């Protein structure tokens, strides 16, 4: 089996298990939860089939929804960030993305951090907007988005640093 395919299959399984078994049981201050499964969407290779990527993004969100019994909000959020990913990549990485020459481990930390922040903030804004679904509770949506995004971003950055391969 191709090495890239096996890495993505393992990443999918490990992130779903980590989200379901560990992160879903973290409920800091009543409303701060990390959603590290979005690392699958964030770290998916650029040159692979876009339709497969969109399907897998939907599938990972749907898998999380089945374990959380959340009615499809994770699937919708994952699908939205999968569609927005090319725009966010172009904003974060510029010409490196346009020429398809970038490797996520080889780019500078500032661009990588901007990319993770934008993807996480968009995911969480959509997720909590669908979860609460009330314009009168918009401040709660922003509060949950802000604090859960901060917690998720810290974990995602730590995970990418710990598990990155040094290219020398």
Helix content: 55-70%
CA-atom Rg in angstroms:
16 Å
Low-confidence stretches: none
Structural class: mainly alpha
Structurally, the number of domains stands at 1
The topology string of helices and strands comes to HHHHHHH
CATH class category label:
Mainly Alpha
User: What do we call the CATH topology?
Assistant: Arp2/3 complex 21 kDa subunit ARPC3
Task: State the end-to-end distance.
Answer: 26 Å
**Percent in strands:** under 5%
Shape, please?
globular
- Characterize the largest beta sheet: strand count, sense, and whether it forms a barrel: none
Q: How many helices does DSSP assign?
A: 7
Q: Estimate the mean pLDDT confidence.
A: 88
Task: Provide the fold topology.
Layout: H1 3-21, H2 39-43, H3 50-68, H4 73-93, H5 95-98, H6 109-132, H7 138-162
Helix pairs in contact: 1-3, 3-4, 4-6, 6-7
Protein architecture, described:
- 70% of the residues lie in helices and 0% in strands.
- The chain contains seven helices and no strands.
- The chain has helices at residues 3-21, 39-43, 50-68, 73-93, 95-98, 109-132, 138-162.
- Helix 6 (109-132) runs antiparallel to helix 7.
- The longest helix has 25 residues, at 138-162.
- The model has no long low-confidence stretch (mean pLDDT 88).
- Keywords: Membrane, Transmembrane, Transmembrane helix.
- This is Rod shape-determining protein MreD.
- The chain crosses the membrane at residues 12-45, 51-68, 113-133, 145-163.
Summarize the structure.
Keywords: Membrane, Transmembrane, Transmembrane helix. With 168 residues, the protein is mainly alpha-helical. 70% of the residues lie in helices and 0% in strands.
């Amino acid at each position: 089996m191709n090495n890239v395919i096996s890495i993505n299959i393992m990443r999918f399984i490990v992130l779903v298990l980590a989200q379901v078994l560990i992160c879903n049981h973290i409920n800091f201050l009543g409303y701060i939860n990390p959603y590290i499964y979005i690392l699958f969407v964030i770290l998916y290779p650029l040159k692979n089939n876009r339709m497969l990527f969109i399907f897998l993004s939907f599938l990972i969100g749907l898998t999380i929804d089945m374990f959380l019994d959340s009615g499809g909000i994770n699937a919708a959020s994952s699908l939205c960030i999968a569609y927005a990913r090319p725009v966010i990549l172009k904003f974060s990485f510029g010409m490196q993305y346009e020429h398809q020459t970038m490797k996520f481990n080889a780019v500078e930390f500032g661009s990588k951090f901007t990319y993770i922040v934008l993807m996480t903030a968009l995911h969480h804004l959509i997720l909590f907007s669908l979860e609460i679904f009330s314009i009168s509770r918009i401040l709660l949506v922003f509060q949950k988005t802000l604090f859960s995004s901060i917690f998720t971003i810290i974990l995602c950055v730590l995970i990418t640093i710990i598990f990155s391969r040094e290219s020398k």
